[in-house]
Design goal:
It is built from 14 helices and eight strands. It is α/β, with parallel strands linked by helices and about 350 residues long. The strands form two sheets. It has a five-stranded mixed beta sheet with strand order 6-5-4-7-8, sandwiched between helices. It has a three-stranded antiparallel beta sheet with strand order 2-1-3. The N and C termini lie far apart (about 115 Å).
Length: about 350
């Protein structure tokens, strides 16, 4: 009725005649959720604020501890211990929205292949690789960041490494894509623990699609992943305990510099007091020499019908530099040709 006569009489007068509060006439129901919008940031005791995504990262970190079976009240206490100003209702909402509440179990499809032997006997690069995540405290930002490294067991070389404020399954997949484009991971055995980033179906499916074999360590047995754990002890001793990081990028540059030092300059006791890169390069040189020797021996014995060319076995004790000099000087080819 008010709308019908609003062009002739003012709305306030019509509402007064109809004994209708003007607020009722102008009210327009909202289609969204009632009440105030949930906050997108959380305060800390020092007056700063961080996004709820960072709070979720810290919640997942707490829940990923061995045997941790906390509900939202215990997680609230943990967050307050991290200097968050937060109540249990907000923690409940964040955990509920992300399926992290106690009793809401995150399940993955398919069986996991668990480690059978703790010690790995690798005979060449890219036969076995191990990966894990290391926490690093960034003092300037008052938070943990995460270092994900993948080590080649044969050479102890770190073949890829990322340092980020959070690590998710897509970061693991992208890391393996990089490794596959550089080295190839078909037939490689990938060893990792049961972290949520590693047991994710998408990660398992990607490794299966490139014909890599993934194996998982047993619960509460870090010694089954000792190769990457040993590298993390080096990181802890040589970087984390010696440096105070002013911000995320300071830490990132420090870890990148240490990776260069570790792979190319630092002598490793487990591989004969040489650098991981030299261990890797020595194998590649021996492999190349074996191909050259096989080709030359096949050329020399081409006249012997029905006989297979002799194959030279190049053991780890052969000095690749010395053998390379023999091949490049032509004496090896002359030797085969004179015996043909």
């Amino acid at each position: 009725m008010v709308k019908a006569f609003s062009d002739k009489v003012s709305v306030s007068t019509l509402c007064e005649w109809a004994n209708l509060p003007s607020s009722v006439f102008y009210y327009s129901p909202s289609k969204g959720r009632r009440g105030a919008k949930p906050s997108t940031h959380t305060r800390r005791k020092d007056g700063t604020s961080v996004s709820n995504e960072q709070v979720l990262t810290d919640i997942r970190t707490a829940l990923n501890r061995e045997f941790c079976c906390y509900g939202y009240h215990n997680i609230t206490d943990d967050l307050r211990g991290m200097n968050y100003v937060i109540n249990h209702k907000k923690v409940y909402r964040l955990m509920d929205e992300n399926n992290l509440l106690l009793g809401k179990v995150i399940r993955t499809n398919g069986k996991r292949e668990f480690v059978q032997f703790r010690k790995i006997a690798a005979s060449c690069p890219m036969e076995y690789v191990c990966l894990d995540i290391k926490y690093a405290w960034v003092e300037g930002e008052k938070r943990n960041c995460y270092l994900l490294s993948i080590i080649d067991v044969y050479s102890r070389k770190i073949i890829d490494q990322i340092f980020q404020k959070s690590i998710r399954k897509i970061h693991v997949i992208n890391m393996f894509r990089r490794i596959n484009s550089i080295y190839g991971i078909k037939g490689v055995i990938v060893r990792n623990d049961n972290g949520s980033q590693f047991i994710a179906n998408d990660v398992k499916q990607y490794l299966k699609s490139v014909e890599a074999r993934q194996e998982f360590t047993h619960i509460a047995t870090p010694e089954e992943n000792s190769y990457i754990e040993a590298f993390h002890s080096i990181i802890d001793r040589e970087v984390i305990q010696r440096f105070v990081f002013s911000d995320f990028y300071d830490a990132k540059l420090t870890f990148e510099a240490h990776l260069e030092w570790y792979n190319h300059s630092r002598k490793h006791g487990s591989i004969g007091r040489i650098t991981p890169q030299k261990k890797w390069d020595d194998y590649e040189k021996r492999k190349s020499l074996a191909r050259i020797i096989f080709a030359l021996s096949g050329k020399a014995e081409a006249g012997n019908a029905g006989e297979q060319p002799a194959r030279n076995n190049l053991s780890n004790e052969n000095d690749p530099e010395e053998l390379l000099h023999v091949v490049s000087s032509g004496s090896l080819e002359n030797h085969f040709c004179s015996n043909a």
